């Protein structure tokens, strides 16, 4: 069952309202805190209530309103409850940051990848992104004033894979198609859709890269990372553009990571 908690009881008023999925850690937490600091009302969505509460507590006092909602984005009923809670609490939705995702079992060759692991990655990264985008799209289309913005968290792997990453890479390539289709279909309703492709932001998920990551030539080598705050600032810039302008695709990465020329 979903649980809802707010950091205060103020009405969001004229504040912009965002949903951030996967808000309990990493990029999702950094983006949520950045938006809260800027005065946004932010619904923090994730599978575990405790990390969501920690994200809400990490925002400075006097910022925006935080609403925490336990939700597994791969479950349609959880997604419906999440966006229903946002509608009931704030009355509208201006931004969805479609961030929840999983890499799946790392370092597993394609011939050894269990179907259950493949399905889990697809359900989270692709099906979950679709379900959240669909729910956001429906609300943005019907609200007054109409419109809003969806930003999908792609990846460098939406362009170029790492070794043994077939499920993650396939879903991130698919997410690019989802972004393009949503962007086209949203035009008549003032719904702007873009994608941020992130490479080597310093989070729990990328902690091992600094000690050694498998390269395309079979060697293991350390890779540089960047501050996740730089990603959060980029998302905020995309989010705060007027709906007449859109960053369709943005790539933000550690400058010296092995992406350009990878392999």
From TrEMBL:
Family named by the database record: Belongs to the short-chain dehydrogenases/reductases (SDR) family.
CDD domains (alphabetical): SDR_c
Keyword Coiled coil: no
Organism, as annotated: Streptomyces lividans TK24
Keyword annotations from UniProtKB, A to Z: Oxidoreductase
Protein name: Oxidoreductase
Domain Ketoreductase: 16-199
UniProt xrefs under Pfam families: adh_short (PF00106)
Entry keyword Oxidoreductase: yes
InterPro entries in the record: KR_dom, NAD(P)-bd_dom_sf, Sc_DH/Rdtase_CS, SDR_fam
């Amino acid at each position: 069952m979903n649980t809802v908690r707010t950091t205060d009881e103020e009405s969001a008023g004229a504040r912009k309202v965002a949903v951030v999925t996967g808000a309990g850690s990493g990029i999702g937490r950094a983006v949520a805190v950045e938006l809260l600091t800027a005065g946004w009302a932010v619904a923090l969505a994730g599978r575990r209530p405790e990390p969501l509460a920690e994200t809400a507590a990490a925002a400075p006092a006097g910022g925006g309103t935080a609403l925490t909602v336990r939700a597994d984005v791969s479950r349609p009923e959880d997604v419906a409850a999440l966006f229903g809670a946002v509608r009931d609490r704030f009355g509208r939705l201006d931004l969805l940051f479609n961030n929840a995702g999983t890499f799946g079992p790392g370092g597993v060759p394609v011939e050894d990848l269990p179907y259950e692991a493949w399905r889990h990655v697809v359900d989270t990264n692709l099906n979950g992104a679709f379900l959240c985008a669909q729910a956001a799209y429906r609300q943005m289309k019907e609200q007054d004033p109409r419109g809003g913005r969806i930003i999908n968290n792609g990846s460098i792997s939406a362009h170029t894979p790492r070794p043994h990453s077939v499920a993650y890479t396939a879903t991130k390539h698919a997410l690019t198609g989802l972004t393009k289709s949503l962007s086209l279909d949203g035009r008549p309703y003032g719904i702007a859709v873009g994608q941020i492709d992130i490479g080597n932001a310093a989070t729990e998920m990328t902690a091992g890269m600094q000690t050694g990551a498998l390269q395309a030539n079979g060697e293991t080598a350390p890779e540089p990372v960047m501050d996740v705050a730089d990603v959060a600032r980029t998302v905020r810039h995309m989010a705060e553009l007027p709906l007449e302008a859109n960053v369709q695709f943005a790539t933000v990465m550690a400058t010296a990571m092995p992406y350009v020329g990878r392999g």
